Amino acid sequence: MQSVLYQTKENIATVTISRPKALNALNAEILSELSDNFKKIQQDKNIYVVIITGAGEKSFVAGADISEMKDLNLKQAHEFGNYGNTVFRSIENSRAPVIAAINGYTLGGGLELALACDIRIASEDATFGLPEVSLGIIPGYGGTQRLPRIIGISRAKKMIYTAERINAKRALEIGLIDMLTQKSDLMETAMNLASQIASQAPISVAYAKDAINKGIQTDIDTACAIETDFFAKCFETQDQKNVMDAFLKKEKFVKFKNK
Ligand code: CAA
Predict the structure, then answer these.
(1) With a threshold of 0.85, does the pTM exceed it?
(2) Of the candidate ranges 72-81, 194-203, 216-225, 246-255, the one whose mean pLDDT is the lowest
């Protein structure tokens, strides 16, 4: 039985972490299947947007699997953290933007997975936290690095040092999530957003993602040079020529070709 389900609809892939009995806790099998799915997505030029969600009613992901971590020694813990970070970087670097559709418990590695996504939509029952210091460890799948970049340094420090849990309303207030929905509307809201992104020029969206991700890590001069390179590369695409041509001829533009 697979622990990560993969479905596609038109140009949108949905990746569902499905281990509901353990609240979708991330074990080695799930990380490996996530990695395989994102390799497949990277090679499939027909996938323009990805949605990641968790199966069951209670959680998105309740963290890394504590039973797999308990007895690790220094070297094994290093490999454990490195593997999770590598998988999450492949999600963050995926050509197609990734939307996290979040319900219920989103703790530890679960929140770290959501932080590696481009956009986070949560339902009203979602709960967020990085409880690692309450377990004698620190966040190991990117939480100490991405949370401060997203919500600010002192807010991230407060969340991490206190191991506090926050609700979805507070997560929206501090910019940890981007949209809040009713539980019953979560997947429809995520799908609508994905469709809106998928209807844009796919190469432009991918370049915009790359420009933002690369530029945000560097100084503003280098960042603007990165933007200029991607901006220029757009002019090598058929989609740019066709849509601008149609605009100037006042013709209705039908569909981007991803070329
Ligand atoms: N690892 C392994 N198993 C987990 C788990 C996890 N992170 N979270 C939940 N489970 C399992 C439970 O052991 C339990 O299994 P059994 O039925 O076999 O006993 C099952 O999921 C259901 O969980 P609970 O009975 O505890 O459910 P609850 O509703 O009473 O509580 C909860 C829910 C508050 C989320 C609680 O399960 C919990 O605190 N889970 C751990 C959350 C956590 O600390 N996550 C961080 C992990 S560390 C990490 O992620 C490190 C990193 O950065 C890489």
Answers:
(1) yes
(2) 246-255
pLDDT exceeds 90 at position 153: yes
Q: CA-CA distance, 188 to 103, in Å (whole number)? A: 13
> Mean pLDDT over residues 63-79, rounded?
98
Give the residue, out of 17, 23, 107, 133, with the most ligand 1 atoms within 8 A of its beta carbon, to mutate for a pocket test: 23
Q: What is the largest CA-CA distance in the chain?
A: 67
Active site residue 132: yes
Residue-level pLDDT at 254 = 75
Rounded CA separation 13/170 (Å): 29
What torsion do the CA atoms of 92, 96, 101, 106 make, to the nearest 10 degrees?
-10
Mutate to test the pocket of ligand 1, among 21, 66, 113 (most ligand atoms within 8 A of CB): 66
Task: State if residue 97 touches ligand 1 by the CB under 6 angstroms criterion.
Answer: no
Q: What domains are defined for the chain?
A: 4-198 (3.90.226.10), 202-248 (1.10.12.10)
The pLDDT of residue 1 is: 73
> From the CB of 22, is ligand 1 less than 6 Å away?
yes
